[in-house]
Design brief:
With 202 residues, the protein is mainly alpha-helical. The protein is built from 10 helices and no strands. The longest helix has 29 residues. It starts with a helix and ends with a helix.
């Protein structure tokens, strides 16, 4: 097949995939994930369910792709912060604050979005594990730079990154954030962040 024709077909396919995901996310946000089916998505787009199934095998696969898009936005934000011309300590501080804010605003602000996130986590999709691994790698790089700059003592940066993530997961895990947000007997985000950073410096 001619390269230009193949490129056009790829572009058309990607456009259709994007349209399906946009419509599905809009309906999931409006009606809820559980109350939306593939026929609803097809009707919204003015196409048959068979057309949807040309691109996605199931509603769960559509949901997984939407989840991937949300995680990609989270990663891009984290990557931008981790590359700022600031000290390693300040980048880690800003990174966790931004992750927490995104969790509160994007994943908890709308109950129907929260339903999508909870279902995704319960299904233990590989896209979530891959996302966590990528975030750990970003933070490990920042810690290595902090070690080189003398901000942190010599240590295993990969292990330190995993521990830093575990110490602050309550600020980034949607279900944990939802449970703790209104509790007055929990550590504040800044208290947890400073505690985790202090651990890196000891």
């Amino acid at each position: 097949m001619d390269d230009s024709i193949e490129s056009q077909l790829d572009a058309t396919r990607q456009e259709n995939v994007s349209r399906i995901l946009d419509a599905a996310e809009r309906l999931f946000r409006h009606f809820g994930y559980s109350k939306t089916n593939v026929a609803d998505i097809a009707r919204d787009l003015g196409m048959s369910p068979a057309n949807i199934y040309r691109f996605f095998a199931s509603k769960a696969e559509i949901h997984q792709a939407i989840c991937g898009r949300m995680l990609a936005a989270s990663y891009q934000q984290a990557q931008g912060i981790c590359r700022l011309p600031l000290s390693a300590t300040e980048r880690l501080r800003q990174y966790i604050r931004a992750q927490h804010q995104m969790t509160v605003e994007v994943m908890l602000d709308d109950q129907k979005v929260h339903e999508m996130v909870v279902i995704a986590m319960e299904r233990d999709w590989h896209v979530i594990d891959k996302h966590i691994d990528r975030l750990h790698a970003l933070v490990a790089d920042v810690i290595r730079e902090g070690i080189l700059a003398g901000e942190f003592p010599e240590q295993d940066a990969d292990a330190a990154s995993r521990c830093f993530g575990a110490a602050t997961v309550i600020l980034c895990h949607p279900q944990m954030v939802a449970q703790c947000l209104s509790k007055e007997n929990r550590a504040t985000p800044d208290e947890l962040i400073e505690f985790a950073i202090k651990a890196l410096k000891n």
